[in-house]
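Forum > Structural Biology > Help requests

Title: Can anyone predict the 3D structure of histidine kinase?

Hi all, first post here. I have the sequence for histidine kinase but no way to get a structure on my laptop. I'd be grateful if someone could post the structure tokens.
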Amino acid sequence: MAATGQVGFALPAAVGSALPALASVWLLRRLSGGGPLLDDLGGLAKFFLVAVLAATTLGAGVGVAALAANGMLGEAGPLSVWLVWWLGDAMGVLVVAPPLLLLSGLRGGAGVGASWYRVAEALLLATGVALTLALLSTEALPPWLREAARPLMFLMVLWSALRFGQAGAAVTVLSIAAALVVVTAAGQGPFARGSFQASFAMLHAALFALSTTGLALGTVVAGQRRAAAAERLAREQAERALARLRATQDGLVRAEKMASLGRLVAGITHEVATPIGSALAAATRLGEETGHMATALATGTLRRDQTKDYLDATAQAARILQANMERAARLVESFKHVAVDRARQDRRRVELRGHVEEVVISLRPQIRKTPHLVLVEGAFRLEVDIFPDAVAQLVSNLVGNALRHAFPDGRSGTITVTVDSRPDGWVELRVSDDGQGIPPALRDRVFEPFFTTQRDDGGSGLGLYMAYTQVAGRLGGTLALERTGPDGTTFLACFPPESPDRPANETATADREPQPA
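Reply #1:
Sure, ran it for you. Structure tokens for histidine kinase below:
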């Protein structure tokens, strides 16, 4: 009968121990979705509810029922037996399961780095834990010293959680629990009481506080580390993307500059062809008249009036030749200055209005295609030490923008470029038109790169952006939309009379998000 009773108890007890464990594993896997179980406070709460509370409650209930069915409860009541059974199982799960789960994750590559100072800190922590346990379990020490060592347990767990995360806290709690179980079972240590049940009840309460505190704090620390790592990764990815964007932007800006220079060359070629053609026609006529004169002289038929006509034609041809050659020379000289200024990127001293006039002259081929008038006004003899190519790019882009956008209805208009100095010594360069103005919805976007309303007509959206980068990046100043409305638009560039020695990268100035005035 005794053997039958033991079998009748052992089988249900085994089922009661195995079934809750299997059920909790299945349920926890479902709840975690296949991810790390103790990855956050939500997963930790699920672990407590399912594995620590529910599974052990079921297992203790089945075990106590098996004891009662076989008459093995003795004098203790079922509730007392169940409580002791449940508390032992719960503490076993709470103390033993987390290190196993977390250390298996570390083998997969998770966790903290094993640098030498981390190893040294781990050894120092282990020494602190051993010293704390020695103080708690040495009966020869004064009682007040052993009692004072109790807070050290929490300090060791907090230290391990803050510095080594969940795994460090779990291993520390397991080490403390293993030592204190042995000490308490021997009737020693700070948790020893008059009875076995009372001693382990006190121990379990302390271990519960240690384990929950360590795991919760370690989970928070691990979450912060993951968030910091994710933020660092996102920042690195954003920086790489920004670097690629800037490289692309630089390439497009360079391409736009080359296209602008190409248009300048084509326009100047066409512009120079006009005076050269006139000079060629005058030279051709002069050659013809000279031929007639030579024939008359050779045949002896030269008359006085014929000589007078030849001299008049020669004088007229000379005037035409001189005027057109001078015009061509001025065009070539202006083109040379503007082209060299755009190709060179060094700082030099220039007379600002004269330089702006040369830039406008180089834009004549573009201006002649429109009915508009471009004027240059302002102070003479305004000497500045700047990057001439930056001013050339600025004026070209602002005037070109006005030619393309200010007068869409085909009516003629006037664009005025004005240079002046301020009382504080800075220089003002205004480009104004009497066109239709900029619509309110577009005013905050005029300096955005690649923003254009004429993309289908070949607009790149880089004109005003490049003008802004020249002023902010090369000239050390500002460019703003000073006014716009039905009576026209004015852009105002302000910069010091002496440009910075080290101009900022052109595309880097876009980080400052230019805002129109």
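The chain has three domains: 1-102+117-238, 257-339, 348-507. The chain has a mean pLDDT of 77.
Shout if anything looks off.
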